[in-house]
Write a structure and sequence with these properties.
288 residues, alpha+beta, D-amino Acid Aminotransferase, Chain A, domain 1, D-amino Acid Aminotransferase, Chain A, domain 2, ten-stranded mixed beta sheet, six-stranded antiparallel beta sheet, 29% strand, binds pyridoxal-5'-phosphate
Amino acid sequence: MPALAYAHGRYLPVSDAAVSVEDRGFQFADGIYEVIAFLNGRFLDWDKHLWRLRRGLAALHIEGLAADRALSAIAGRLVHRSRFADGLLYIQVTRGAGKRDHGFPAGIEPTLVMTVRRFDIRQRLPQLDTGVAAISLPDQRWDRCDLKTTGLLPAVLAKQEARLAGAFEAVFVKDGHVTEGGSTNIYMVDSAGAIVTHPISARILPGIARDTLLGLAREAQMTVVERPFTLEEARAAPELFLTSTTAPILPIVRLDSAPIGSGSPGPISARLGALVWAEVRRQTGWSG
Ligand SMILES: Cc1ncc(COP(=O)(O)O)c(C=O)c1O
């Protein structure tokens, strides 16, 4: 079964789905998106993703999207029709299609597109044991990184640079501080064993996996400190790791080709890995 889409009220193969060239998503990246994992046919953190989608739409003054119940029904149908057990749901909402004009055209309806594709999250389990490499790059994004907009060009360029360097992720640095990754949140462990990550602000996306991880860490009485940390601190840290919907937790064992700590995943990442994956299984009944 190929990847499946929902567009203009129809369910169809992704290759047959289309939006207008006048869509403001295409013209201006005037839209918000979400990526939601499903395992065993069940969505992970559905309510949190929907909350973030609504928050982004409100910030962009995009009005008139179908109600949560309708979105949930479309998403459920899409996954069901795809017959994928494990995969990713992509939701994109743009301001709609209209005559090209920077200001909002009157009377247009938002465009809603959803797609599902197969994604085997099992591949992250061996990576949890080996860790991944990252490179640091200047954070060249705008001042509203808390919004998950489709305007991703700085991340696109940074991720490509990471790929060319043989790295999994690009770690963004702004004013000497690590903000987040190209498509992940970033954490270090300090010398006292505390988990340190950039606080929620306009400089980072409030990651759903971040929220889950910090909640689990606090429940387990681990120390969490939400403060900016410098690239130098990151280089000297015993452990670094990242989180995202597609990588619930992965240790970073090399940064700019230099080893982090011993160069192997450390005990805090391992402990968090056990907690995070237990939560994934609890929510979805996944047994992979
Ligand atoms: C810039 C950025 N930060 C963090 C994340 C992680 O967010 P989440 O855990 O909600 O997937 C993403 C996800 O795509 C992202 O694009």
